[in-house]
C-alpha cells in the first residue's frame, strides 16, 4: 500500500506498539530505499503526504493538522516527538543508565547477582572438575514505578493559528521537566537504593570541607574492578573542580572550550545537577550501575488530541530505576 493511501485512525495508537511502529508495519521504510523518500520514517512520510511542516521559519500552523480526519491522527505523535526531543536535549540519564527495560505491566522485579560472585577471578578448571557458579536471582522488592506528566490547558481556538515551530518549543519544555524529574529519581536510587538494602558506598575527603585532586584520585581508585566513567555533582562542587589546576590542562581545557563537554583528567565525563545534595560527588560506571524501567515511553491522550479537546489532554511517562551492581556507584562527601 502506498503511503498516500493509508487510512489513519485512532486504532493505530492501540496496537500495543508506538504509532510509528504501527505505521511501519503497514508502510515499511525499506520499500523506499533508492527513492526521494529514503531516510524518512513512516510518520515523516505522512507529514509529507499532507504537506505539514513542523519546523523551520515556514512551519505551518497547528490548524494544518486538522484539515482532514486522517491528518488529525498525526497530531498526538507530533506531541510525543516534540516532548521526547525536549527530554533528549536535556538528557543526562543516558550517560548514567546501563540499560532500559520496557515492560507492559506495572509490576517488575529486576535480577541480582552477588558482588562476590562477579568479582571473583575465574579459576583455571581441570578437565572434569567442578566449574564455579555465578548465581542470579530476582530481588526481593519490586521496582517502584512513578507516573509523571503535564496536562495541556489551552483551547483549540486559542492555539489553532500558532506556528508549530513555537508550539514545539513549549512542548520541549515539558519534555525537559520530565527529564529533570526522572534524573532526580535516578540519583535518589543511586544514593538510597531501590528498596533492597543497597545504599551507595560512601566515602569522605581527607580534610572535611576541602576537596583536593588527591581525594579524587583516591575515589577513582576505589572503583576496581569497575571503571569510574561518569561523575555527577552539585554546581558548587563543579565550580571547585573546574578551578583545580589539573582540570585546566591543555587537552581537558581545549575540549571544554571547543565543545562544552567536561572531561576529567582521568577520563570520567563530568555533569552538573542541582539534584545532587550540596557537597556530594557521585561516581559511577555507567555500564553496570543503573537500570531504567519504563512502561510505554511518552504517552499522549490521543483521543482528546485528535478530537481537538486540548483543554485537559495529558502527556505522561511511567518509569522507575533499579541498581544493578551495588559497587558500580559510589559517593564522595566533601562536607
Characterise the protein shown here.
The chain is α/β, with parallel strands linked by helices and 335 residues long. It has 2 domains: 3-93 and 143-186 and 298-319, no CATH class; 193-292 and 323-333, hypothetical protein PF0899 fold (2-Layer Sandwich). Helices cover 31% and strands 16% of the residues. The chain is built from 11 helices and 12 strands. Strands 1, 4, 9, 10 and 11 form a 5-stranded mixed sheet that branches. The chain is globular, with a radius of gyration of 24 Å. The termini are far apart.
State the total count of DSSP E strands: 12
Strand residues, percent:
15-25%
Sheet having the most strands: 5 strands, mixed
Residues in helix, %: 25-40%
The low-pLDDT segments are none
Distance between the termini: 65 Å
Rg (C-alpha, Å)? 24 Å
Helix- and strand-based class? alpha/beta
| Broad shape | globular
Number of helices: 11
Order of helices and strands: HHHHEEHEEHHEHEHHEEEEHEE
Mean pLDDT level = 88
Count structural domains: 2
